[in-house]
Prior knowledge:
Blueprint: E1 5-9, H1 16-28, E2 33-36, H2 52-56, E3 61-63, H3 71-81, E4 84-85, E5 90-93, E6 96-101, H4 113-127, E7 132-137, H5 145-148, H6 157-166, E8 170-173, E9 183-186, E10 189-193, E11 199-202
Parallel strand pairs: 1-2, 2-3, 3-4, 6-7, 7-8, 8-10
Antiparallel strand pairs: 1-11, 5-6, 9-10
Amino acid sequence: MKKLKILSAGDIHGDSSAAKKLAILAEKEKVDLVILCGDITNFHLDTQNLIKPFKEKNLKLLLIPGNHDSFATADFLAELYGVKNIHGYSVQYKNVGIFGCGGANIGTEQLNEDEIYNTLKKGFTQIKDLKKRVMVTHVHPNKTKMENLSSFIPGSKGVKKAIDNFKPDILLCSHIHEAEGLEEKIGKTRVIHVGRQGKIIEI
C-alpha cells in the first residue's frame, strides 16, 4: 500500500503568512494530510486565515490545541472549517491510525500528567489494532534532548508514559521553539519536533 504523506507543523502563533506558506508547501509536495500540533493562535487572538489557506487548497487537516489556544478555540476552528480536532480522539487514513492530545503541562491550557496520558489512551484505544500509529501532542516528552534545550519548559511525563505503553511508530510534537526540526528515538518511536517551518513525514 502507498505510504501516507503528512506535512506537520506547530507554533505558528496567529501568523497567517506562515499558514499560507505551509499550505503552499503541502500542495506542492502533494501531501495526503496536514497536521497542526498546537499553538495555532496567539492566546486565542488572530484566528483569521490560519485554517482557511489549507481549506482553499482542499487539503485534509487535523489539529490539536496548544498552550496558547483554548480547547474551545480549537473546537471553534475545527467546526468553522470542517476539519478534525483530535484532542482525545483518533482518525484512520489508509492503514494509519492517528491520535492526539493538545494543551500542555504548563501555561493557560494546563493539563496534569495523568490527564495527558489518559487523553492519549482514550484516542489510542480506538485505533490500537492498526499496524501503523501516529501520536500527536503539543508538548514534547520528558527525558529527551528536546527537554534539555530549555531550562524552564519541562517535557511531559504523561507523553513519555504513552510512548512507553502504546509504542506509536511516530510522535509529532512542537511547543519548545528551540527544538524545531529535532528528531530522536524513544525505543522504536520516532519523536519529531515539527516546528513552524513544518516537516514532511511518510509512513
